[in-house]
């Protein structure tokens, strides 16, 4: 293409010098909420010891309110909204952006929230395999009038590296497991607290227990599309999500907001430690506090 307009990011090859803006990016972190991804960029700014307090980081996609994007040194932090269609659009444009910017050796990590299966709220799950609602490691993408099936395997070495990193961080219960990705938060995740209750409590528990037996430890809404797209485009990718509740015990997320905020910060602490380690940096003195959003 003579020109590539990255419409939803409000960036383009003719309007922006993408190699100058992004050519040295080495880590891309993505997550659903714009506020979380701004807070993560501010946190990374401090963790990397960059100049200034990082409080006034500019949204690189400010011209659009579809997604928000922030930079802290070699780390790009981008929101993707909720669900597969939203993350797919962002990833297509992000991957083209990395290509146009001539980025090399990029690691991409989704830092999210999820519902747990048989594990305590606050646990962090590093995904070894993203599976669909039938517990299969596949993502079905409709292309023209075909259903194309794509693999959702993630980088095992990267998952192990992250697990090793987690062991050096206090109060960060972390495990590796399968992550189930659904098209909905309510019926799609076997919840009975949505507007529709189309199955019994027994059927719900039977389904969730079968998921557990298949190796699923948490449930969210983007991992299969994320894994499939990153794999096909040759990006080393990981999914790291905190668990907000144990779905074998209930459907409603009842933890107080401050507790949820601290939970949300856990994947960020792990990824900050991982990035610092990769860059050969020491942790900054006394700075593992949860930033306010
Ligand atoms: O916490 P984030 O990354 O937004 O993701 C999870 O939270 C949303 C549902 O509350 C879904 O998008 C799910 O995947
Ligand atoms: O139960 C949950 C919690 C967060 N995100 C999800 O998709 N499901």
Supply database-style keywords.
293 residues, alpha/beta, five-stranded mixed beta barrel, two-stranded antiparallel sheet, 7 helices, 12 strands, globular, binds 1-O-phosphono-alpha-D-ribofuranose, binds uracil, glycosyltransferase, Nucleoside_phosphorylase_CS, Nucleoside_phosphorylase_d, transferase, Nucleoside_phosphorylase_sf
Low-confidence stretches: none
Query: Based on the structure, what is the oligomeric state of the protein chains?
Result: single chain
Distinct small-molecule ligands in the complex: 1-O-phosphono-alpha-D-ribofuranose, uracil
Helix content: 25-40%
Class of secondary structure makeup:
alpha/beta
What's the mean pLDDT score? 96
- Radius of gyration, CA atoms, in whole angstroms: 19 Å
* Major β-sheet strand ordering: 6-11-10-7-12
* Morphology: globular
Largest sheet: 5 strands, mixed, barrel
Q: How many strand elements?
A: 12
Distance between the termini: 39 Å
Beta-strand percent range:
15-25%
Count of DSSP-assigned helices: 7
Order of helices and strands: EEHEHEEHEEEEHEHEHEH
InterPro entries: Nucleoside_phosphorylase_CS (IPR018016), Nucleoside_phosphorylase_d (IPR000845), Nucleoside_phosphorylase_sf (IPR035994), Uridine_phosphorylase_euk (IPR010059)
Keywords: Glycosyltransferase, Transferase
GO cellular component, one term: cytosol
GO molecular function, one term: uridine phosphorylase activity
């Amino acid at each position: 293409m003579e020109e590539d307009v990255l419409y939803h990011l409000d960036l383009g090859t003719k309007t922006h010098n993408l190699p100058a803006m992004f050519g040295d990016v080495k880590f891309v972190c993505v997550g659903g909420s714009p506020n979380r991804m701004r807070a993560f960029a501010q946190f990374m700014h401090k963790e990397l010891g960059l100049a200034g307090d990082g409080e006034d980081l500019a949204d690189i996609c400010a011209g659009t309110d579809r997604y928000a994007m922030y930079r802290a040194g070699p780390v790009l932090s981008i929101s993707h909204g909720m669900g597969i269609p939203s993350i797919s659009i962002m990833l297509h444009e992000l991957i083209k952006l990395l290509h146009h910017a001539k980025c090399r050796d990029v690691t991409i990590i989704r830092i999210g929230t999820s519902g747990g299966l048989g594990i305590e709220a606050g646990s962090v799950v590093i995904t070894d395999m993203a599976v669909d609602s039938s517990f299969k490691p596949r993502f079905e993408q409709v292309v023209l009038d075909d259903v194309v099936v794509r693999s959702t395997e993630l980088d095992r070495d990267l998952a192990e590296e992250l697990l090793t990193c987690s062991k050096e961080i206090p109060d960060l219960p972390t495990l590796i497991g399968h992550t189930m990705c659904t098209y909905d938060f309510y019926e799609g995740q076997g919840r009975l607290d949505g507007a529709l209750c189309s199955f019994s409590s027994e059927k719900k528990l039977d389904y969730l227990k079968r998921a557990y037996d298949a190796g699923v430890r948490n449930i969210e809404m983007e991992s299969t599309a994320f894994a499939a797209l990153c794999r096909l485009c040759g990006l080393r990718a990981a999914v790291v999500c905190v668990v907000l509740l144990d779905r074998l015990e209930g459907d409603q997320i009842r933890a107080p907001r401050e507790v949820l905020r601290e939970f949300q910060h856990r994947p960020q602490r792990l990824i900050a430690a991982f990035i610092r380690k990769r860059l050969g940096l020491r942790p900054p003195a006394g700075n593992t506090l949860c930033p306010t959003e």
